[in-house]
Amino acid sequence: MGTALVTGATSGIGEEFCWQLAAAHHDVVVVARRKDKLEELAEQLHQIAGIRVEVLVADLSVAEDVERVAARLRQDEAPIGLLVNNAGFALGKAFVDNSLEAEENALDVMVRAPMALSYAAARAMRARGRGAICNLSSVASETGAGTYSAHKAWIRAFSEGLSEELRGSGVTVTAVCPGPVHTNFFEAAGVDMSAAPQWLWASPEQVVSEALDAVRRGQVLVTPRPVYKVAMGAMRVSPRWLTRRVMRSIPHM
Ligand SMILES: NC(=O)c1ccc[n+]([C@@H]2O[C@H](COP(=O)([O-])OP(=O)(O)OC[C@H]3O[C@@H](n4cnc5c(N)ncnc54)[C@H](OP(=O)(O)O)[C@@H]3O)[C@@H](O)[C@H]2O)c1
Fold first, then answer.
1. What is the pTM of this model?
2. CA of 24 to the centre of ligand 1 (A)
3. 182 CB within 6 A, ligand 1
4. φ and ψ of 32, to 5 deg
């Protein structure tokens, strides 16, 4: 896979991608908004794992910043072999109670940016005859619960379509669909998950380990942990009204 570029590297799942990729001796390009956190992570990855780390400070809701990241993906020197579109967040509010600005910001970070970065990566990787794109979707892609679910459904459908377009090119696309993961994700959005039992939760280590195994196999869809593989399967065969009814008791994402 060579050098990997990971968005949302300053926390949670993205940070864990960096550590597991570093342990497998991949150099990484780390992307997020918080410069201090990125530089601290880069220093630790270099000191502990001995890899080369590039820091790219970018707000993925800003078109010019997305274009700078896309330019790095197009670069032939130290080419990117794996793009991880991971940056994202919960909105924590019902659509009609949120500001349209906040909704558009979420769409930019979780849909527009992954689309633009996948475009740059897919074209550069196809020309080189190898590469992989890994996109963070969610179990929420099946639940129909608000715009967060819609963004993650877009990511999953987009990843499936792109994987077919790129079939035979040496470039693979993987969409990862985790259930709840112990990160800063819920707290940042003020979503109270205290009622969720411990067995529902995954660690970032579990999620990233299953995701990277899937990427290495060229697998298109991966749902980490057996309980969520079953839940995703059940939602696919259940009537949609049943899924909607169950979702009434789940807090807004
Ligand atoms: N945690 C879960 O339960 C769960 C479940 C399923 C799917 N996911 C998905 O997994 C991905 C990672 O989530 P996480 O749980 O690791 O959350 P997290 O710990 O809150 O990390 C989110 C990351 O996204 C970055 N980010 C947010 N807004 C950004 C922006 N405008 N520009 C650039 N970077 C931005 C943050 O960095 P800065 O603040 O430094 O910019 C941070 O590194 C997300 O796509 C999420 O939807 C999470």
1. 0.97
2. 23
3. no
4. -175, -175
